[in-house]
Automatic annotation (TrEMBL):
Similarity comment: family membership: Belongs to the ATP-dependent AMP-binding enzyme family.
Keyword match Transmembrane helix: no
CDD domains in UniProt: MACS_like
SUPFAM superfamilies: Acetyl-CoA synthetase-like
Name under which the protein is recorded: Acetyl-coenzyme A synthetase
Domain AMP-binding enzyme C-terminal: 432-511
The UniProt record lists the keyword Coiled coil: no
Keywords, comma-separated and alphabetical: ATP-binding, Ligase, Nucleotide-binding
Length: 528
């Protein structure tokens, strides 16, 4: 695939992709289930009627092309309706997770110049003490709330016809805030044209959605991963999306995969890891699953081995950021090298560069970087030219992640630049150590960070969450785990210190926050 094929026509609105499928009355867009087993489903035709009704309500209330709207709706069909309606009207969406609290929302409302808020009713309280810099137009879904326009009731009265806004492909579509794994979230500007480029790469090449497929992409609305997969890729390719609005539980997940004959699965490494640790995996059969992908964090070899053994499927890794799209991945049919995140995706120019901005030699660790001419690269950080400029080196956008490339062009992830450990002059990526540790049958989850050390500068320290039945007071435990790592990696990488925790610090999207553990280490050593 050539770069040119990822460039959208000058006039383009991403909702046109979904509208095509509304002409086929039987095509099912979404199947929904909640924790108590209630179910619903909606066709594309019906979904687009609701979209049009919502679009009419927005414009009757004075909203227009270019206005910024913050949406906080969980895994409900209504989330799809309001996102599509706002985009169809040419408005800009700030995707917001229901886990955000008042201060997070305030930050987005002020920084993002928000004009309207759409909230599922249980979250309206979070807006009670918000300071408005301009009067907010507020819509609630699911129940009436004082001071809010009740969208459900207004939609019933509205027409099911609504014209699509005549947007340009470089009009802003999303203002997506990053996960905040390493600091304050950044407001990433994405256009309708970006959505086009993402859709052309991720859906056919990586997710491999085929006509008639049921696709389960587990990310929740509010995260860029939801925009990537369940929203753009599933609806943009006419698939049937499964939406499960319930807590993560590995056994429940496996039984849903079975119940809905899921064909394509897109999960986080943590979800895969916890499914792989379920006992009696042979009780589950997934004969319809033809594609399984993982993104967001490094994927452990353990997961790949177990899914191959029990479900005869390769879990394929994919790497990308809120700032871009799927940059590197294991596409279907490509030989899988366990532990590697794959190769640059078609049409995207991704390279590993050194501090001078030159492309690294094979085997040399450097920064994963994206050439500025890549269509799916973000435009800028909203109202933050300094941070935007900091992210570029020559003709490249620098991701902040380190990797090396092998002689076959496969990328091997080392870690986030800040997470890399330098010990006695050796550079150690935390991922390789974690990958080895998690293979041990006692280990449920782990995170590896640098811990200050007088002699070595820093040493490798592991924080380990043990499986429930394991006794952390066992005197041989630590040595046992250390020997295990030494047997799987270069021995100098083994964790010299191990601390046991009951859980790891994570972002609201479930990513491990090594920064927090590292800061704790720095602070505790200073005190000694
Ligand atoms: P912030 O930028 O606010 O600190 P964040 O970088 O976690 O947060 P995201 O854009 O959601 O926000 O995540 C992108 C990052 O996630 C990547 O830069 C990388 O560190 C990590 N990542 C994503 N996919 C993979 C993968 N397949 N393997 C390894 N790491 C991955
Ligand atoms: Mg980031």
């Amino acid at each position: 695939m050539k770069r040119e094929e990822l460039i959208a026509p000058e006039k383009y609105n991403l909702v046109s992709e979904m509208e095509r499928f509304a002409k086929e009355p039987k095509r099912v867009a979404l199947k929904w289930e909640n924790e108590v087993g209630e179910t619903k489903q909606v066709t594309y035709e019906n979904l687009m009627k609701q979209v049009n009704q919502a679009g009419n309500v927005f414009s009757q209330n004075g909203l227009k092309r270019g206005d910024v709207v913050l949406i906080i709706v969980p895994r409900l069909i209504e989330a799809y309706v309001v996102y599509l309606a706002a985009l169809k009207a040419g408005m800009v969406v700030i995707p917001s997770s229901e886990m955000l609290r008042e201060k997070d929302l305030q930050y987005r409302i002020t920084h993002g110049d928000v004009k309207a808020v759409i909230s599922y009713y249980p979250y309206v309280d979070q807006f009670e003490h918000i300071t408005e810099t301009q009067p907010l137009i507020k819509f609630t879904i699911g129940a009436e709330e004082k001071g809010w326009i009740y969208l459900d009731a207004e939609m019933e009265k509205a027409s099911t016809k609504f014209a699509i806004a005549d947007t340009n492909s470089d009009d802003m579509a999303f203002l997506s805030y990053t996960s905040g794994t390493t600091g304050n979230p950044k407001g990433v500007v994405h256009t309708h044209g970006w959505a086009f480029a993402h859709l052309k790469t991720a859906a056919p090449k990586w997710l491999c959605i085929e006509d008639g497929d049921t696709v389960w992409a587990t990310a929740g609305p509010g995260w860029q991963k939801w925009i990537w997969s369940p929203f753009l890729s599933v609806l943009g390719s006419g698939g049937t999306g499964l939406v499960y609005n319930g807590k993560f539980n590995p056994k429940k997940y496996l039984s849903l995969l079975q119940k809905y004959d899921v064909n394509v699965l897109c999960c986080t490494p943590t979800e895969y890891r916890l499914m792989a640790k379920v006992d009696n995996l042979d009780e589950y059969q997934l004969p319809y699953l033809h594609s399984a992908v993982s993104a967001g964090e490094p994927l452990n070899r353990e997961v790949i081995d177990i899914f191959r053994k029990y479900f005869h499927i390769d879990v394929r890794d994919g790497y990308g950021q809120t700032e871009n799209t799927l940059l590197v991945g294991v596409t279907k049919g490509m030989e899988l090298k366990s532990g590697s995140m794959g190769k640059p995706t078609p049409g995207n120019r991704v390279e590993i560069i050194n501090d001078e901005g030159r492309v690294c030699a094979v085997g040399e660790v450097g920064d994963i970087a994206v050439h500025v001419e890549t269509p799916a690269l973000f435009k800028k950080y909203y109202k933050d030219p300094e941070r935007t400029a900091m992210q570029f080196r020559g003709d490249y956008y620098v991701t902040g992640d380190k990797a090396k490339m092998d002689e076959d062009g496969y990328f091997w992830f080392e870690g986030r630049s800040d997470d890399i450990i330098i010990s006695s002059g050796y550079t150690i990526g935390p991922f390789e150590v974690e990958d080895a540790l998690v293979k041990h049958p006692f280990v449920k989850e782990c995170a590896v960070v640098a811990s200050p050390d007088e002699i070595r500068g820093f040493i490798v320290k592991a924080f380990v969450v043990l499986k429930e039945e394991v006794d952390s007071n066992d005197p041989d435990l630590t040595r046992n785990l250390q020997d295990h790592v030494k047997s799987l990696t270069a021995p100098y990488k083994y964790p010299r210190r191990i601390e046991y925790l009951t859980e790891l610090p994570k972002t609201t999207s479930g990513k491990i926050r090594r920064i927090e553990l590292r800061q704790k280490e720095m602070a505790s050593v200073k005190q000694v």
